Amino acid sequence: MRARIRGIYTTALTKLLLEKGFQIVQPSQSIKTRFSIQENNEPPDINIRDRRGLQGVVALGTPDAMLRFKSALQSTLEDVLIREWSVSVDGIYKGRIVNRDKNNIYVDLGGTVGALPKHEDPGVDQREVVVQVKRRGIGGKIPILTTKIKFIGEYAILVPGGKIGVSLKIRDVNKRTELIALGKSLQIDDWGIIWRGTAALKPREALELEVSRLAEKSKILSDRTSSASAPTLLVDGLRFADIEFPASSKYALDRLRSTVTITMDGHHFYKSCGGQVSAALEMAEKLLEKGKNEVQGLFRRYIESEFPTVGFTVNVEHVKPGGAVFNLGQATIEALNAEGIRYSRTIRTDGVYDGLGVEKKKGDRAVSEAKFGEWYLITSYFSSEGMWKGAYVNINTPVELYPKAIRYVDLEVDVCVRPDGDVTVLDMEKLDKAYSRGIIGDKLIGRIKETLNTVTSRDYIQKLLAKFI
């Protein structure tokens, strides 16, 4: 399997994937140097890059490559979360039209509904339509569809209409002429061929083989279309996944990176902070490479002003396994040291505290406590007069304190503790669903169950109640 990797996790992931039998293609200069990798411009089976916000990566690859990549991550990183898109990228579906509005036709693909632009409407009398999932809007809640089917290969794209074309990346006139002539000689039925930039360096035999494979896919589509019942996938494409690296994963990736090059503790955390913190880290590690060992202390003193301390207000980013980020509002840091953090929020609305069955009133205080590295945090609720209403023990990835936010991934399960000592475990079915969808792996499910056993034990509950009663 060939992987192309870019971004702040490149060195660590390169180390991991090489150990898992992957070949690294199109490596950057620093990766070639660090791993003694030769130049290799072959197209990748999987493309990996930073996700927005730098809290992990996104990956696009063949089904087999994605399966192996997911296995490599989940067998190595305890708290990694993998959110695979529900549809096949470039996949061709026979879908059922379920709705229309002024902009789109909505097509059921089988568990997921995609949007086909109105100008591609097959007609109001049509109930079924053959569509392809476009790369535009990849990973979105509603896939964007098209009826303009094409087959995308590594070196060529098969398109309807008989057109022969060459990528503008190929500037050599002789090569362009050669490829156009080859395309005409290989043309199949009314399919055209667009040669990609990668075709310029490939021998004729490889290009012929590619076109033959794409033509076989077009035949499969033709054979299946008439007999298949909608909704169904007719021709598979690529897989897309959004992958989150919470605290434990970042530190595991630090350890992998440290076997290859100078890596300060917390490297990937500091890189994900961006801005001045990331820039200072790069400078500090360059100085460490030159043997200036006092740099680590200087670095931490330099970035200290970028991070909040007692009395500061920060946002609380409560991330769900599926990827949704809930901003719980601003919290005031009440205590902070190397061991952990305590912060409080003021409740803004009336209601009921789910699981506790206690009235929630505007003006209540929510006080949260977490130890760094632990897999849960405790949030206690108090009335405006200071009466304790109960507590949630939230099972989550270890809390991370960023320059402007507290962040963790909520692992669905909550333990509710009432003042009368009653204990309720909530949302185990949500955890099971995340596990069955592959978002949560075996290592993480094991850690969650171990933590749940700890926080529901009689000794733990008695100690918690003793703090407030």
How many domains in all?
4
Low-pLDDT segments, ≥5 res:
none
Give the helix proportion (percent range): 25-40%
Q: Largest sheet, order of strands side by side?
A: 17-18-19-22-23-24-26
- In the CATH hierarchy, the third-tier topology of the largest domain is known as FomD barrel-like fold
What is the CATH H-level superfamily of the largest domain?
A: FomD-like
Strand content: 25-35%
What is the overall silhouette? Answer: globular
In the CATH classification, which architecture of the largest domain applies? Beta Barrel
Instruction: Please give the alpha-carbon distance between the first and last residues.
Output: 59 Å
Largest sheet: 7 strands, mixed, barrel
Number of DSSP E strands: 27
CATH class of the largest domain: Mainly Beta
> What Rg, in angstroms, do the CA atoms define?
27 Å
- Tally of DSSP helical segments: 12
What is the typical, i.e. mean, pLDDT? Answer: 93
Structural class, from helix and strand content?
alpha+beta
Give an overview in words.
By secondary structure, the chain is of the alpha+beta class. It has four domains: 2-87 and 240-258, no CATH class; 92-237, Ribosomal Protein S5, domain 2 (2-Layer Sandwich), CATH 3.30.230; 274-306, no CATH class; 313-468, FomD-like (FomD barrel-like fold), CATH 2.40.380. Helices cover 31% and strands 31% of the residues. It is built from twelve helices and 27 strands. The chain has helices spanning 10-19, 29-35, 63-74, 173-186, 204-227, 247-258, 267-273, 275-289, 295-303, 428-436, 442-455, 458-468, and strands spanning 2-5, 23-24, 46-50, 56-61, 81-84, 92-100, 104-108, 113-117, 128-133, 145-146, 151-152, 156-160, 164-166, 191-195, 232-235, 239-244, 313-319, 325-336, 340-346, 351-353, 358-360, 365-371, 376-382, 388-396, 400-401, 405-417, 423-426. The strands form five sheets. A seven-stranded mixed β-barrel has the order 17-18-19-22-23-24-26. The chain has a six-stranded mixed beta sheet with strand order 2-1-3-4-16-5, with helices on one face. Strands 6, 7, 8, 9, 10 and 15 form a six-stranded antiparallel beta sheet that branches. The longest helix has 24 residues, at 204-227. It is globular.
